Amino acid sequence: MPACHITLSEKLPDLTFENIEIIRDIVAEGLDSGARRLDRNHIVVRVNRAQRKSMLGEIEIEVFSQLFVRRFFSRDRRAKNISQKITEKLGFDCATWINMCIVGYSRVTKTGEVFFSD
């Protein structure tokens, strides 16, 4: 489950639900590979605020995802594609970072379902 931290400058309005879903789709597509098929439901989103003077774009995207070899060697191209698509769709200057690491993941529902990274 990649986690996407979105930082908005004070110059931007709050993102609508539709805009967040667009970002989730773009990030999922940007990280997708033959080994890992992703859609928006795999992307967790956190929204933060910052001052534009301390940012590289009006919106910044920090993606924390599991390290996969295909992602590693194409990380800069993937980050560029994510930034470019967000800029085209939302009309904001966008900077993107993809931080890959070895992660463990588990989720337990109140009905007792258990999910793990594999």
What does this protein look like?
This protein has 118 residues and is an alpha/beta fold. It has a single domain, classed as Macrophage Migration Inhibitory Factor (2-Layer Sandwich), CATH 3.30.429.10. Helix content is 31%, strand content 31%. The chain contains three helices and six strands. It has helices at residues 17-31, 69-73, 75-90, and strands at residues 3-9, 44-50, 59-66, 94-101, 106-108, 114-116. The strands form two sheets. Strands 2-1-3-4 form a four-stranded mixed β-sheet, covered by helices on one side. Helix 1 runs antiparallel to helix 3 (75-90). The longest helix is centred in the C-terminal third of the chain and has 16 residues, at 75-90. The radius of gyration is 15 Å and the shape is globular. It starts with a strand and ends with a strand. The mean pLDDT is 92.
Name the average pLDDT: 92
Whole-number radius of gyration?
A: 15 Å
Strand order of the largest sheet: 2-1-3-4
Return residue spans where pLDDT drops below 50 for at least 5 consecutive residues.
none
Q: What are the secondary-structure elements, in order, as H or E?
A: EHEEHHEEE
CATH topology: Macrophage Migration Inhibitory Factor
CATH homologous superfamily caption: Macrophage Migration Inhibitory Factor
The major sheet is characterized as: 4 strands, mixed
* Overall form: globular
Number of domains: 1
Q: Work out the number of β strands.
A: 6
